[in-house]
Amino acid sequence: MSPTATMARPRKRAGAADSRRWTEGRVREELRSFLAGREEWPSYREFWDAGRKGLRDAVTRFGGARRWAREFGLPYVERRPGYAPIWTEERIRADLTRFLAGREFWPTRIEFEAAGLKTLRDAVGRSGGPPRWAEEFGVPRRDERRGSRRVWTDERIEEELRRMIGPDGRWPSTAEFRRAGKTTLQAAVYAHGGPDHWGARVGAGPPARRNRNRPVLWDEQRIGRELREVCAEHGGWPRFVEFEAMGRGKLYRAASRKGGVARWKRELGVG
């Protein structure tokens, strides 16, 4: 066999994007490189710190850590979740810095758990909770994103809209909301009355339509009928991502424009 045939493949930069599908063969190949020189199976944190979270998640999908530790002849050390002595504020802050990088909103508990970070989320809860840490990192929480009434009162919506619209009285486009960092304000508008309602209230008129000659496809009768079908099938009001997953995103947006989500929930008697 030629010397080049036995040369190890160049290792990819940790954390580099890789769209290849995970298979058992790929897990085995990448573990062989990652585990070289180790005397025991690494902790989840060691995978994370090395930028190999994807590899660790694939390990879980293909038999779990104990299975692969046995295959590579490494002792598997049982590591129990750490509490106060381990989860210091410095560690919470460091782990949140990595996890929140690039996120526009504070993650849900499900998102923490899906990333294998349940113990981090629990530590957050014990040290002031999401409100404290979200404020420190400047990341808005989901209740703001969804236009929660605890956060977005009518008075606050009107005040912020008037500041954003300014003296020209022109309703902002979605791109302008985004550029101004006011996507949560736009979400509150859609959740509580819709753009037509708020445009009239602040004297900005209805939002501009891209094609005023196009026939109206989403009248109130159709919206009501289709929402009843979706809610009956779902057993309640779905979240926006669930509307999208069902291919009903346009229905959600139409309901938002025609009175807002809160209005349709009241009319349909769903939560």
What are the salient characteristics of this protein?
271 residues, mainly alpha, 4 domains
Description:
By secondary structure, the chain is mainly alpha-helical. The chain folds into four domains: 23-79, no CATH class; 89-139, no CATH class; 141-210, no CATH class; 220-268, no CATH class. Helices cover 55% and strands 0% of the residues. It is built from 18 helices and no strands. It has helices at residues 3-6, 24-34, 44-49, 53-61, 65-71, 89-100, 109-114, 118-126, 129-137, 142-145, 154-165, 174-179, 183-191, 194-201, 220-234, 240-245, 249-257, 261-268. α15 crosses α17. The relative contact order is 0.06. The model is unreliable at 1-17 and 81-85 (pLDDT under 50).
Low-confidence segments, ≥5 residues, pLDDT <50?
1-17, 81-85
Number of domains: 4
SS field, number of helical segments? 18
Oligomer: single chain
What class do helices, strands and sheet pairing give?
Answer: mainly alpha
Could you give a short account of the major beta sheet?
none
Radius of gyration: 25 Å
General shape: elongated
Average pLDDT confidence is 75
* Fraction of residues in helix: 55-70%
Tell me the β content. Answer: under 5%
Distance between the termini: 68 Å
What is the ordering of alpha helices and beta strands?
Answer: HHHHHHHHHHHHHHHHHH
Number of strands: 0
